Structures are given as C-alpha cells and as structure tokens.
Amino acid sequence: MYKTHIADQAYDFKTLRNLMAKATPARSGDYLAGVGAVNNLERVAAQWVLADVPLKQFLNEALVPYEQDEVTRLIIDEHDSAAFAAISHLTVGDFRNWLLSEQATTAALTAIAPGVTPEMAAAVSKIMRIQDLIWVAKKCRVITRFRNTIGLENRLSTRLQPNHPTDNPAGVAASLLDGLLYGCGDAVIGINPASDNLEATSRLLHMLHDVIERYQIPTQSCVLAHVTTTLKAIEQGAPVDLVFQSIAGTQKANDSFGINLDLLNEARLAALELGRGTLGDNCMYFETGQGSALSANAHQGLDQQTCEARAYAVARKFKPLLVNTVVGFIGPEYLYDGKQIIRAGLEDHFCGKLLGLPMGCDVCYTNHAEADQDDMDMLLTQLAVAGGTFIMGVPGADDVMLNYQSTSFHDALYLRQLLDLRPAPEFEQWLQQHGIFNAENQLLQRPDVPALFKSSLQNLSE
Amino acid sequence: MSDDNEPTIAQDPWHSLKQFTPARIALGRAGMSLPTRACLDFQLAHALARDAVNIPLDFAGLEQRLNVQGYQTLTLQTQAENQSVYLQRPDLGRLLSASAMACLQHSAPIPVDAVVVVADGLSSTAIEYHAEPFLSLLLPELQQKGYRLPPLCLVKHGRVAIGDAIAEHYAASLCIVLIGERPGLSSPDSMGIYFTYQARSGISTDADRNCISNIHNNGLSYQQALKKLLFLLNEAEKLQFSGVNLKDETTDAEPNDRLKQANFLLD
C-alpha cells in the first residue's frame, strides 16, 4: 500500500507506522530504536509516499492497536469529525499546502484543531521545513487562564524555575527573587523538588503560596512532584495551583511513569475543587519530550516524534494551562546535536499548537550533547518568532539541581526587546506597578531594589 | 576587565543573596544581556564539562598508578568502539567486546565474592581525579572483610550495566561500579558508585541497584561515600538483595539546620 519507485529503487513500507518512522528527519533516538531511515534516499522516498496518504487513513489505521492502548482509544474516541470535515478530503501533502495558504487563518486553524489527530500533525510536520513549522505555528493562537492570561498575541511568558540542590527555602527564595526582579514568572513559578516526597512538596507549595500572597503576584505556582504526591498534598490541604505531570504518547510509557488517564482526571478534579484560579480553570501543567517513550522501552515501534505528538492528545484532554516540551534534556542518544534539538523543539511547538495546546519549550541541552549556547540562541529566537507561548527562566541558564542548561532571565529580556514581546498583561501590570519594568516593556535601571522587596533584603548581610 | 566599575553594566543590588544558593544570580546586565564576565564564566564551565565528556581517560596511567599500589588490573573495552557511538548507543556500552570477553576468559577462574569495576562513563575527569584515591580507601576495607577479589576491571566506554557482565563472569555476588557521571556545569568531575547484589547481565535493572552519587570535591567526600557503600554491602549480604528496597540509613554529616533556615522573603 505504501509503495513507490524512486531513483531506480523500489520502496515498500509495510505499515503507516513504519512509513512515519522512515519519513522522520534524522535523529539518534530513531536509530537507537532501529526504526529510522537507513539513508537519505529512503527517508525522502518515505516522505513522498507519506505526502500522498489521505488524512482519513490515520482514523482507519491506528499506529498502536486500539485494543492495547488507551492513548489510541482517546485519540479515536474523542475525535471531532465535525471539526475534521473542513480538511477531511486532504492528503498529508495537501494539508501542508492548506496550512501554509491564506485559507488557514487563525480562526480556521482554531476551528480544525479538535479534528486534527496527533498522527496527522506529526505526519505533516515530517514534510515541513523549519520555516513552515514557524509560520504555521505563528498563525495558531491558544489562550489559557488561571490567575493571568497566557498566550495572547505578541506576548511571551516565562516559567520561573528557582531550583536548589537541597530545596533550601532561602536558596529557592534567592533565585525566585532574582527572577522576579528580572521580570520572570508569569507562566508559573515552578520548582523541581530535589526529592519527590510529600513533606518536601508540601513545604515548597506552602512557601510559594505565601510568597504569591504576600507580594500579590498575579501568577500561579507549581511543585513538579509526581501526580500521586500532589494528590496526597491536596488531601492534606496544601495550596496546589497547578498539578504537574510528565506524560508520554503510549499507555505503556505512561505506565512506566506510574500514571494513566483516570489518575490524571482524578488529579485535575481535585485541583478544580480547590477553586484557586481567579480568571480561569486551566489547572494542569504537563511536560513532555521526544525520546521519553523509548527510554522507558515503550515506544511500540513508533518514531519518537510521533510518540511525542501522541502525548499531546493526553495533554489536550485535561485542558492544561501550560505544556512544556523539555526538548534537549534527555541527551544525545535521542537528540544528538544542536541541529536535531532545534528541529525537534520547533516540531513539538508546531504540533502542540496545531492540536490547540498552550505550547512552550524548555530550550535546553546537556553537557554530553553536541550543542552549546549558540544552538540554544538559535532555537530560542526561532521559537519566539514562531509565537512560542513560554520559555524557562533559570538563573544564568544553569540549573544547579537538574544539572542541565536551560534559558536564562536575560534570554527572555533579549527576546522582549528584539521582538517586543510582553509578559501576560496582569503580570506586566504588576511589574510596572512595582517599578520592575517601565511602560516600554524594559527593565528599569535603578540603584536599589524596588520598595516591595526592600525590607526583605534589608536585614541580610553581604 | 573589571565589571564592577564598568559604566555600561547595570549591577544587581542583591549580591547578598548569593550566600543562599550556588545558582548564577545577581549577574547584572549589559543592556538586557549578560555582562562579558558572566558570559565567559559560563563558557569556561561549559568547556570543562565538555572536556570531561570528550577527553579520553588515560587508562594506561590509571592502570600504572593502581599497579604501583599493588593492585592487579584488566583493561576491557565495550562494544561501543568510539565516543560518538558510545554517546548514541547506550546499549553497546553495556556489552563487552569480543576481545574483552577473551581477556576475561584468560583471567584465572578463582572463586570470588566481589568485583570492582571502574568505567569512564560520561566524565573522564571524574575517574581521573577520584577513582584511585577512593580505591585506595575501599580496597583495603574489602580485603579486611575477607572478600576474594579478581583483578580490578577498568572499562573503556562503559555504562553502569557493564558491571553485570563482569560480575556474572566471575559469579560474584557483589558488584561495585565506579563511573563518571553526566557532568553538570558546576560539577564536571562528579563520580558515582553503583552497587548491585547478584548482578546478572540483561536481568538486573536500575531498580536492583543502589547509587551513591555526586562524589567530588564540593560534593560527597570519599569517606562519606565509603561509609555508605560499606553499609549497603553489609545490609545486602544480610537481606540478599540490593536496589530500591534496600534503603541507605546512614546519616549525612551535613548539619540539618541550613534546611530549616528561615526564608528572608517571608520573615
């Protein structure tokens, strides 16, 4: 069925799953899994064949069997055929043309989103260049709310990530204040706890709640513990704004994370019950990343980018405030170098946005990847041009707890002045009110800390 | 280049917060960007971390230093034949090469209790700096406990699970692997120790191992690491297992009061 003859070579891709994997731009994780194209010609042959596959075929040929996998069941059972109607006659190649055309306005893209499956998004991304991924994502608009408004046009939000190697409260507070004074933290103030236990999680939750209350910061908090830990914290009365969980695109991978759809639903309902959102009820924060299913040996023969897109079906079900692809964290056995990391980040952002998700990206790398700050600057800039919803803010881009390099408070300021991207309006107002930003979206230069924080710093010795 | 007096740099008047965290805070800014000094500081740290990954470990030198101390060694290679393959194919770093297998076969088939494996892992500098001094504390302890040991196995391009194959070959019940950890920007030379009871190739998983991490000059000391490892060895022999159900009950020497320290933002 998936056959072609190209440059004197006959190609016969046995299944849609196989075709998708062969059509994927080269990356180390697909070679590690043994599913990637063996050479450039095979990859391009697969892309030619894939371009002729009708979008409808993705509703008929599940890449992971329906009976075996609850993520497949979610994708098929909750598919919106009315929304799909407008694009149901298209092939993958036609779909690319349509997405790039004037017909695909922001309103049209919003309307079709519930009719697009992760596999359709992944398929079309495989035959798109970087500029296509940027342009189409830029046309998508996804707005979410909890205590502020995320995703408005010409806005860029930041997750303030004040991690500390031992969760020392003063250590967390030091990075937190540094970030606030650089205008960071409107997406979420989110801490990765050094140890995933209930006591540490609760302590950090209370601390973030108290800081947000005391300084009246229009943002939300999150402690990135396992969802079961957060559920227990809610039971004990801890002030949980956003429920965090890492998610993946197969049931088996989610099993290895100790989660399933029922559990995520239970956690979301528990957080909604607390009623802590003032502007909206988007109360979930998900993280994903290409390669996570393979690293759990649960990729089911899929390429890692298709697996990743399927995770967005899981995310979409729970109406998250934020979805973050932690693109370079996993290491070079999945994304070998800067080139692979950059493309993966933009693919993820595009697929997420096309599916209607508030997609941000942890623009990041580890020290054993063939990548450096120049690569991150390229992804950072391209993501912002593409309308990326949020990035991370880590002091000096160096996460001293997780031992990887992300983006800094300075990186966000660079994008703000380069592209005139403002923070969420409620947060922007707070920054201006307290003399952190001026009305032109710039950090105010001042000899002293703003009055709001002056007394907190007064008693500290150098 | 003195950033302090540079009029184009906006200083952050909250340097006092640096006492609370090793994070790169209060860096100041040139326009909206990093000042030159902070920018180069980062590049320096990254260079050290990259070199830790990419500069090959001097196996001959390490072997010689250990031999001088009277320890026999075997240098073994995995199926990851070079660094690029090693980084992209973790599976091959868990398998011994054919020549390494042959080398093991030639090693005397004496009954042993414990194997000690040293693998370069992701930081050659970690092993270069910390393996030999740590071994000179560990090996006398093991001998004193009466453990029979084969030669130390030094493994090039090895992952943690390479110890399983070696323990299995010797039918040793205790497997100790010293390995260079993924280098952080502030800890390029961090060594880890993985201990597995009844390690068996392809059967033992991460859940069967106990890890003692973060051994470097600003992290866990050799003595602290040794204490933890000896505790785990003793407990595993009693319980006949290692891994997630074997809890490290040794206390860290670090005082706890820093944890309870007040938070200046909320006082």
How is this fold's topology laid out?
The complex is a heterodimer of chains A (about 450) and B (about 270).
Chain A: E1 2-6, E2 9-13, H1 16-23, H2 28-32, H3 40-51, H4 57-60, H5 70-77, H6 81-84, H7 92-100, H8 106-112, H9 118-126, H10 130-139, E3 144-145, E4 149-150, E5 157-160, H11 169-181, E6 188-191, H12 198-214, E7 221-223, H13 227-235, E8 243-246, H14 251-256, H15 261-274, E9 284-288, H16 292-295, H17 304-317, E10 322-326, H18 338-354, E11 359-362, H19 373-385, E12 390-393, E13 398-399, E14 404-405, H20 409-419, H21 425-433, H22 451-458
Parallel strand pairs in A: 5-6, 5-12, 6-7, 8-9, 9-10, 10-11
Antiparallel strand pairs in A: 1-2, 3-4, 13-14
Helix pairs in contact in A: 1-3, 5-17, 7-9, 9-17, 9-18, 10-18, 12-13, 13-15, 17-18, 18-19
Chain B: E1 9-10, E2 29-30, H1 36-54, H2 59-68, E3 73-77, H3 83-88, H4 98-106, E4 114-119, H5 124-144, E5 152-156, H6 162-170, E6 174-180, E7 191-197, E8 209-215, H7 222-239
Family (chain B): Belongs to the EutC family.
Protein name (chain B): Ethanolamine ammonia-lyase small subunit
Pathway (chain B): Amine and polyamine degradation; ethanolamine degradation
CATH topology of the largest domain in chain B: Rossmann fold
Can you tell me the CATH class of the largest domain in chain B? Answer: Alpha Beta
**What's the tally of helices of chain B?**
7
Order of helices and strands of chain B: EEHHEHHEHEHEEEH
Give the name of the CATH superfamily of the domain at 144-433 in chain A.
Aldolase class I
Classify the oligomer: heterodimer
Number of domains of chain B: 2
CATH architecture of the largest domain in chain B: 3-Layer(aba) Sandwich
Q: Biggest sheet of chain A, in brief? A: 4 strands, parallel
Q: Can you count the beta strands of chain B? A: 8
Give the uncertain stretches of chain B in residue-range form.
none
GO molecular function, one term (chain A): cobalamin binding
Subunit structure (chain A): The basic unit is a heterodimer which dimerizes to form tetramers. The heterotetramers trimerize; 6 large subunits form a core ring with 6 small subunits projecting outwards.
Binding site for substrate (chain A): 159-161, 192, 287, 362
InterPro entries (chain A): Aldolase_TIM (IPR013785), EutB (IPR010628), EutB_dom_2_sf (IPR044939), EutB_N_sf (IPR044941)
